[in-house]
Design goal:
This protein is mainly β. It is built from no helices and 11 strands. Helix content is 0%, strand content 51%. The strands form 2 sheets. Strands 2, 4, 5, 6, 9, 10 and 11 form a 7-stranded mixed sheet that branches.
């Protein structure tokens, strides 16, 4: 599976951005999708995931500010980010796995910078 992210950029604190990730292939609806991020000199961390039944989970640090969603007709998963903080600055990676596990794919990453 090839994952291609878009939508990163520079935004001021308190601002919003929407990341998109489009997947290749015809089995998108059967994949668990997610977003991870990695800040400089820090480990990659889970931001949000969405299951094939649209169940979602979020890291505590983004709850109430970020929303993950998916559009199976477009093979795309989104991450709507609001009330952004400087500590949200990172490279954001799209992730997917099969419902059975063992089929992880990663996107190339998109930079999000929150700064005034």
């Amino acid at each position: 599976v090839r994952l291609v992210e878009s939508g990163g950029g520079l935004v001021q604190p308190g601002g919003s951005l929407r990341l998109s990730c489009t997947a290749s292939g015809s089995t998108f609806r059967l994949k668990v999708m997610g977003w991870y991020r990695q800040a400089p000199e820090k480990k990659r961390e889970l931001v949000a995931r969405i299951t094939i039944n649209d169940s979602t989970m979020y890291a505590d640090s983004v709850k109430g500010r970020f929303t993950i969603s998916r559009d199976n007709a477009k093979n795309t998963v989104y991450l709507q980010m609001s009330s952004l903080k400087p500590e949200d600055t990172a490279v954001y990676y799209c992730w997917s796995d099969t419902i059975f596990g063992g089929g992880v794919s990663w996107g190339q990453g998109t930079q999000v910078t929150v700064s005034s």
